[in-house]
Amino acid sequence: MSSPTGLGGVLESSIAQSYNSFSGSDITASIGQFTFAELQAVSYSVTREKAPIYTMGSPDVRAFSRNKRGVAGSLIWINFDRHALLNIIALASGRFVANNEEILPSFQPSSAGPASQVAIFNSNLVRTSGPPVTATINALDNIAVTSVSGNNSLAQPWYSDQILPFDITLVGTNEYGAATGMKIFGVEILNEGSGVSIDDAVTEMQATFVAQLVEPWIAVQSAFQTGVGGTPGVGQVGS
Fold this sequence. Notes:
By secondary structure, this protein is mainly β. It has helices at residues 84-91, 137-141; strands spanning 27-31, 34-35, 39-53, 63-78, 96-99, 152-155, 166-173, 179-194, 204-211, 213-226, 232-234.
């Protein structure tokens, strides 16, 4: 008789195949086709407004009115030598429509490789489009607008809140071969924060977000377990 999982059979107990659980070490996160390898934790909550309805003559609630639903959460990741979230968005060629009058950061790492050691110390702000940084309000008044979007251009985000909505996919496969996955759709970054101190061995960053909807955890076909008739097994109770 062949093993139900193809992992040997001799060292496997049928009891171990009854329930499948997953830890953080089994789960990876991706944004698009890029793995968010620096991510330490992701959490989310779903809240909905449900209001009690009362009428005269009774202190008890008559019914509950269901109203709006919201999805929000947080991300925590490790920064090694770069901003992890902005770096993965840059790898995905993420852009947003920026105003030409916005002051872009003067220190921009090159996509071809690390920036030079003196680039971070440059104090001059140079704009590649729009008026110079030193322009006065009179110079701004004299800028001719010849098209509706003439004062805008595509730019790479330099703040997390400038990133356009994206999806976060979480997938997991444990050592038994069971697989699971979920997805958070339309993630919009609201706030981010970080800091360093003599007591910190690592540099963390945190960000809060809102999202449009959540696809809950579901068991998916496993590439390592065999079900009835030789078909891929499904990671669920009783598989």
